[in-house]
Task: structure prediction
Amino acid sequence: MSEGRAPGISRGSILGRLLSGGLTTFAFKRLLISIPLVFVMTFVMFVTVNTQGSSRFDTFENDPAADPQIVEMEKRRMHIYDPIHVRYFYWLRGVMFDVRFTADRRYVATFEDNDPSRGDDKYKFGGSEVRLAAEGVGGDYEVPGPAGVPLGALGQPATLVKLLEPKDFETLLLSTADASVPEGLALSVVAGSGSVPLPFQATAGKPATLAVDLDELNRQSSIDQIREIRLVAAKPGKASIRAELVKRRVWQETYPGRAKKRTIQLVFRGTPGEAAELGALKSPYAMKLVEGSDWKADWASVQEKVDEGAEAAHREWKAGGMKSPEPEAVTVDRVDFDALEFEAHALQGADLPVSVWILHGDREKPQAAKIADLKLGSEEKTWELPLAGFPAGVDLRQVRGLRFTSDAPGRAEFDDFRLRVAGNPFRIGAPNFGTSWDKKKGVLDLIGEKVKNTISLNIFSLVFVWLFALPIGIYGAVRQHSNAERTLSFLTFVGMSLPSFFLAILLVFLVSLTYDIAPDSPFRWMREILPIAGRTSQDHSAMGTLGQMWDIAKHTFLPVTVGVLGGVGGLQRVLRGTMLEERRKLYLTTAMAKGLPPVKVLYKHALRNAIIPFVASSGSLLSGMMAGSAFTEIVFDYPGIGRQMLESVLSYDMPVVMANLLISGLLLVVGNLLADIGLGLVDPRVSVEG
Amino acid sequence: MSEAAPRVVMKPAEHKVLTPRQIAFIKFRQHPLAVYGAVVLGFLYFVVVFADFLAPYDFETQMRTKPWHQPSTIRWRHADGSLARPFVYNTVRVRDENFIVNYVEVAPENMEYLKRKLGSELMETPREHPIRLFAAGDPHRLLGLVPMKTRLLGIEVPEMQNRPAFFLLGADQMGRDLFSRLLYGSRISMTVGLMGVTVTFTLGLLIGGMSGYFRGKTDLATQRVIEMIMLLPGFYLMLGLRAALPPGISPPKMYFAIVLILSFIGWAGLARTIRGMVLSISQNDYVVASKALGVGSFQIITKHILPQTMSYAIYVVTMAIPGYMLGESGLSFLGLGIQEPYASWGNMLQAARSTNDIKLHPWVLLPGFMIFVTVVAFQFLGDGLRDALDPKTILRAKKESA
Result:
């Protein structure tokens, strides 16, 4: 290769070596080998991972409440019945070009984007709350039958409910089932340390109810378990008390990911001939309400429960009846899209007549325009409504939602709303890594930002590892056996040997100690000096550019510290070892003998050679660092792909798992490639042999 | 220095030839940190074997009235100040002014405070519960064979609502003795490395050996497979493989699944190193000679080549064991490994994921320190073994002594 070097460029210059072709060929070769290997590896992983893909449905199959039709439909949508290699190619097609969702990030092309939780994990919708009478649930607690709880002698408590795990339940509802309340009945909860009295005001002969907020109770007693609920009465007697437990986030915990299922099922009620408008695809709230009904078949009974972030909006919605907070308008550009598509079929009643309306225009009073009349059969079918066929005057730039009406009773299901990209071959094909099973969202939309976060975290860590390892390693070699050297290498050794997740926990612990500093102490500036969770503060968007950068820097400090502490040890040992070895070599003696200043000998000769293994081991450092940063992300709640990987493994969201594997593999390939190029730059032998 | 050597006059008694193994042993003993590491590990593995006897309680035993109990105060003196055999007082849960939960000993000096706090709910009187050696405790099977109730330490437990307990290192959120769980947890955390390394070692040696010996297409194929495995970052590969396990898998199966997952990831690195060594060794004349004599390939690899790589492989293996431990504890820490109620150091650390819990109950960090100590011990041991097994280091050792 050396013959190919351009004349006039000196042998030693980096530019010359890059241009000479040796290094470039070398890098290119590496890439050529690595990329196919990544795909072979993803195939192996795809087969392995998807052997369990169907286990995701086991929970539904054993659940009498789950609609078998829906489960079946979901299975088909996820290509469960296809042979594995066909599924792999479906996946690969999704990786390369996916037409299902957005074609271009500029256009918000799906109606799903009404969801305020998009790209922001702050809003987690808990899904429908299901009220469970305690009898039906099973588990480690008991409720007396209608005979009532015998109340013991004065001061001797009777036990009502034993051993609750408040983390599974949200509210405890206590009510006297009949009017047989004995006098002076008092309830207390034994939880944590001692008992907490409950404000249960019962007077003889009058029914009473009490809803206990278990979270609040938990906060008071800082304990995970309620031991029992005690009843104490002034007189011995019997009390018939009914306990109901309201289970928390039942879909999320029992059926991972089910809470975010977006299939909309509408229940058409009413007599034939009577028009029934049943649901408008307007906002997540409306959607969710309807969503719940596919399990209960009775949406009036479904209780809405929205987590903190959406609570205020939710209250507003409740107050206004069906009026939901208006989402941002969906902007549709006719040029890029040519049809609205969705899948729909009737679950009850053949040939169910359904009219589709589009809501558009003003936020407060959107206009509804009928765009199609459909007859839904029981077979699942993709309906295609060309945008060109929409009535004139529909403002496609401000679509507020869809509305479905029917003249006949029945149940129907709608799914997969999307806008078809116009037939321009250059516009389709934005890589999207398939569709998340959980969130029905393009995987790239889901993790794109997180990939960037992970990359920036690792780059920062790597840079700081170098910045620290280089001087420490040199110092260690120059001042071998000095006390400072021993302390430094001991510290880096400790950092190297601590598991990264434990190191992260320790840092959290240290930071949490600063919370104890009294607000009037002279060290009060240390209080809550560092945030220990997330990447941005809650009021991040309100800050100026500098403020935002400072905010991110503060949040990234601890995760980077973990990476640096873990990485410096190994790297500085490598450098120190090779430096010591170089120093013994004769050419250094020669250099010293000919009178070169020691600094020059050290940095021009010894370091120049010792740096080679240092750079070479940076490549393998990256692999370890990515593993470490994944744990760090999880402990510090940093939105990166490590944390995403954990979440999707827990919910068996295979497309996201696969995308994470693929992306992390590609990151490693690129990282190793850069390390190789770096190695080629510092070590002339590599590029010549490349 | 080399000229100086012949001048040393050796007394006949000293002049005996040491086998390489003896030399290695002597060199190992000169490495104090490595010896400490070996001692610590020996102790830990002793604990692994006798965990159920050494632990005061079973790993599942819950003291339902004592979640998050602080380490018990062990007293040496009676209330009147005279010496006693070590004992503990029972404790009751009291909420202080800030609603923080405390456990207060039912000791004579605390009675006034307790009466004020609890009033009529206080039903206990001060009573000493001596800590006995070879006390009867939760039933277990010594070495998995001998059913017995005797445990090294224990206190007599009267039947009562608020059972007295002694927690050397505090209790976890379920009121289980942290010390006992640490000991039981060592069984999983300390053996996962050994199991994993056994699988890796066998695979790595065989595959690496074959790849280096046969070269050509075998080598090419093996190298590509190794590269494939090393292409994905370990954590992601580990979680990806974990996703292939069905939910609700039983704990023993999970243990072996983890071993397999970690070995699957780990063998590639060892195989690659072994391959490199075998490549150079198989050039040697004696290998060529064996070939010429018609010795079978398998025999050449296992009998003539692999033993040469052994000393390096032992070092690599020692350094690899912590990796498996960390893999297991990492998975368990994330809730994807060993499941409750079984204890492993990783899943015990799950309790430390809440900032509040670490702050109020810092003893939940102890499993992390155990992991740290073990990792360090293995690294010291590995360093010592490398120096001891490396034939070059003997020169350096003489130089320093001269």
